[in-house]
Every structure is written in C-alpha cells, then in structure tokens.
Amino acid sequence: MARQVKRAFRYRFYPTSEQAAELSRTFGCVRLVYNKALQERTRAWYGEQRRVSYVESSAMLTGWKKTEELAFLGEVSCVPLQQALRHLQTAFTNFFAKRATYPRYKSRKKSRASAEYTRSAFTWRDGELTLAKMSGPLDIRWSRPLPQGAEPSTVTVSRDAAGRWFVSLLCEDTMVPAPATTNAVGIDAGITSLVTLSTGEKIANPRHERRDRARLARAQRQLSRKAKGSNNREKARRKVARVHARIADRRRDFLHKLTTRLVRENQTVVIEDLTVRNLLKNGRLARAISDAAWTELRSMLEYKCAWYGRELVVIDRFFPSSKLCGACGTVRGKLPLNVRVWTCECGTTHDRDVNAARTILAAGLAAAACGDGVRPQRESSRTGRSSVKQETQRATAGTPRL
C-alpha cells in the first residue's frame, strides 16, 4: 500500500551577488541568535536551575531587535531566526530526555552555514523559488524533478565549506512499495570488501579518501604555508574543502547506488549493529573505518527499507558472526583479524566474511520468525518511525543451519 512520506530534495543553486550577501547576513544572524539564546538558557539552568521555554526565548529575540547593538537582526527575515530558536528547543528537549549531549555553540568556521524558511517566508510559483527579502527567484539547477504536484513546506538554504550553495525542499511524496520478493540477504561490513553478502558476493571498498589522499595532502601543505588571516590562506582553505567535498560526494553516490540495489533485490535485509564510535578508537583502522562510512550505509538502508516496504533486521553487536560455524554451529574461541580463512572442527573451511554474512542472515531470520529479543531502535529522522532492533544473545540456539 502506498504511503505518504516527507522527502527532502536537495539541489545546487547559484545566487547573484545580492542574494549571496543577503543569505550570508542571514546565516550570521541565525548563528548569533542561536548562540545568544543558548547562553541565556545556560545561565538560567546552571545559575537558577530554571528551564527557559521557546516562548521566553522568542520574547528575548524581540527585545534584542529593539536594542541599538542588535538592531540589525530586524534587517533579515524573522522566520530563520525563529526556526533557530525552535532547533535549540529541540536540542534541549533531547538533552533533558537523555537522548543527546548538552547543546554546543555554533562556530563561524566549523558549523554549517544554513537557514530554514517555512511556508510564510518563501514563494513557490511556476517552479520558481523566491525567498523573503529577495526580489528575484533562485537560480536552481533542477537535477531531478520534484514529485508531481508537490509543493515544498520547508526550504533550507546552506553553504558548504567549499563555497557551494544548496537548497533543500521538503515535500510530501507518495512512496509505492517495491514488488514483493522472497529474497533475503545478510550483510557483513568490512574494510577490504565494503560489504560481503550472504550470496558469496563481495563488493570492493572504493576507498575514496585513499584515492585522493595525495591531492588532499598537497592542498593541506599549501594551506599550512599561507599567512593566517590572509586572502591567500582563504583560497587555499577552499581548495582543501573542495577535495573533501569531492571525496564525500563520490562516497555518497556509491552508497546510494549500493543500498538502492540491495533494497530492490531483497525483501529482508539483515545487518549487524556496529558501534562505529568505539571502533574509531582503534588508531590503526580509524581512517579506513571513517572512509567506509558504515553509519551512513546503515542509515540509507533504514529509510529505504521503510519507503519501499522491505524489512530491515539488525542483530546484536555481540553476536559472534565471524566465529560461528554455519555448518555445525560451533563457536570458535579466538579469530584474529588477520585470519581470513579458517577451518572448523567439523572439517568445513570458511571464508571469514562470507561465513559472517551467512550467519548474520540465519540469526536475523530466526529472530524475525520467533520475535526473540525485540526491542525499540533509534528513530529514523527520514521515516519518522522507529525501526526494530533484533537481539540475538545466544550464538547457536534457534539458529538454522546453512
């Protein structure tokens, strides 16, 4: 059955000099309002043990605009400023609910420059988008069409470190489930092979960062030689940012194609619940793990499975997928990372990654069938609903033989 979901469609655009100046002022005002509101909330919380509501923050913003020092806040659209206060309110709600750490200040250099416009602050007419305080529409490169008859409810404008401008349009879209199939696949994430499938297929890791490492190192060396605060240093910084953007774009494109293929071909997808944050503490593998982008891979699988009517099963991180023999169910005591092929006591020789993918699939199907150890999983921001985390604490009990 088709279902309505909210999807963000991101496009690159090229602002005029006037539009760029207006947006840059808006970005600065958004960051200032967010930081001042956070400062007031921090003072009230640590000084008086009092929580400041969104309504109080909004009243503060009105007072700031009336002062001589901050009168310039009234020169930009008020909607992005109000949205910044709403985002801060959400951050504190998550903090008090123990879902996130304490909110941090936005940095001019490190934070993403962005501004969010709701329906009252932009005009959408005949496929052209005009933001508040601007006389003309944005010059958007429509790399893909919006859904038929869709109108954006929220528009987010951003500028990345490489100086590229993007606009994200949030629209209602009708998602039709993919044709049903009986296929199921287990996925073992790795470094040499980005993913190994239970079918025996290994998809090589493109290693996007390694391919551009020499170019990145050269750009960083040139940046280090420039005087701080100079125009040449800013130009060199942009070059470094463009290399990073190239790496990120290629990585994201590859992951989108891979996850779309996996979701289209399989009704059930089983993966491991990897703690990437802890794995990054390994100094020897941290760079390769970051380049593999396992967290982004999982995120894409989560919302695409929800969109297209597929089932995503996540097994417990402590499940011994690599050490569990898929033929007899015996769990091997130790299996160092450098051992890629091993032989079980029953005489079966296993490829480490293929065996792991197959045992992951078997454990996921067993957990999905009997409902053992199901508990809520983190909510997906793209689907608006919780996925399911399948706990399989016992290595052999209830695991079907392969």
Automatic annotation (TrEMBL):
Keyword set includes Metal-binding: yes
What GO molecular function annotations does the UniProt record carry, in alphabetical order? DNA binding; metal ion binding
Q: Where is the composition biased (Polar residues)?
A: 383-396
Residue limits of the Probable transposase IS891/IS1136/IS1341 domain?
A: 176-282
Keyword DNA-binding assigned: yes
Region Disordered: start-end pairs: 220-239, 374-402
Q: Which UniProt keywords apply?
A: DNA recombination, DNA-binding, Metal-binding, Transposition, Zinc
Q: Example GO biological process term?
A: transposition
Give the UniProt family note.
Answer: In the C-terminal section; belongs to the transposase 35 family. In the N-terminal section; belongs to the transposase 2 family.
Q: Which NCBIfam families match?
A: guided_TnpB, IS200/IS605 family accessory protein TnpB-like domain
Q: What is this protein called?
A: Transposase
Question: What organism, scientifically named, is this protein from?
Answer: Streptomyces radicis
Its lineage opens with: Bacteria, Bacillati, Actinomycetota, Actinomycetes, Kitasatosporales
